[in-house]
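BUG: 3D viewer hangs when loading the predicted structure for this chain

Environment: internal workstation, default settings.
Expected: structure renders.
Actual: progress bar stalls at 90%.

Input used:
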Amino acid sequence: MPILRRSSLFFAATFLSLLGCHAQVPAPVAGQPLPLPLARRVEVLLRQKAQLPPGSIINVSPATASDLPGFQNVSVTITNDGKTSKPISFLISTDGKTLAQFTKWDIPTDPRNMISDTGRPSRGGPEGAAVLIVGFDDLECPFCARIHATIFPALTQRYGDKVRIVYKDFPLDSIHPWAMRAAVDVNCLGAQSPTGYWSLVDYIHAHASEIGTGTTDDKDKEPTVARANAELDQLTREQAVKSKADATQLDACLAKQDTTAIEASKKVGTALTVDSTPVLFINGDKIDGALPAEFIFGIVDDALRAEGVTPPPPYVVPVPPVAPAAPTTAPKPTTPAAATAPPAK
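C-alpha cells produced before the viewer hung:
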C-alpha cells in the first residue's frame, strides 16, 4: 500500500480531475498497490485540489474492481499529528489518467413506496390513488395544527379522490409532554373507527392550546400533563361513543398505553431524516414545514403529471377585496327642514 507524505484534510467536495496525459504511467491493477509513479501523481493532485499542508501521510489502498466500466476503486486515508481519517473512496481510471469521487444512489422504482400507508386511516382517495401524501404529525404541534386546518381541507377539495392522505405519528415528546399520550389515544380509536380517528384528530388539533387547562374553575391554573392526559382519554371515550366503537376494547387500549407502534412510526421518520414536524411526503418528495397552499399544490400537480393524470386548472391565489376609500371631506349636513323649505321670496 503506497504511503505518500504531506496531506491532512478530509475531502468533502466531489470532483473529477485529470491525473495527466503527458507521460505514460503504469496502469492500476486490481488487487495490487498503485504503481509508484501513479501513486505520486495521485498525491500531487490531492494536495493541489484540497490545499493539503505538509507533514502528513497519504495512504492509498490497492485497487479493487468497480461497478463503473473503465474505473477501479481505491481508498485514501490521511494521517496527521497522530490522527488518521476515515477511508475516503475514489475511482481511478484503468488508463491512470482520471481520479473521480462521487456518490451513487439507486433510483427507486416508485418513490411513493418509500413509506407504507397500510393500516392507516386515510382521507381523500382510495388505496392506490395517483398521489399519496404521508404527513408526520405531532398532535401538540401548533404548526401541525395550522397545516391540518388549512392545507388538508384544501387538498381534498381541489383534488378529490386523486389524492390519498394518511398520518404517521412523530410526537416530539421532549418538548410536547402530552403528544405521545394523544398519539396512543387516537390510534386506540383508529383501530376501530377510521372516521372516529379523524374526528378526534380534528378536535385535538383545533383545541390543543386548551388541553390540560382543566375545568372552568381551573382556568387560572397552569396546564398540567396529568390534566391533559385525563382530558385526552375522556375526549377519546366521547368520540368512541359517537363512532359506536366497543367501549371495553377501547378502555383496555387506553389503560395499556402501548407506545410500540408510535415508536416504530418515529423510527420510520428518523430513517427518512424527519427531525421536526410537520413534514409531508408527496409521492416520496419530502416537504418540510407549514408551507403556503399554492406551493404544495404545485408539488401535487407535478406528481399527478408524473402518474399520467391531468391536474386541475392552475391554482390562482385569491386576491383580498379592496376596502373602499374613505371620503376626503365630510358631506355637508342637510336637515329635513332645509331640504323641504320653499325658496325665499
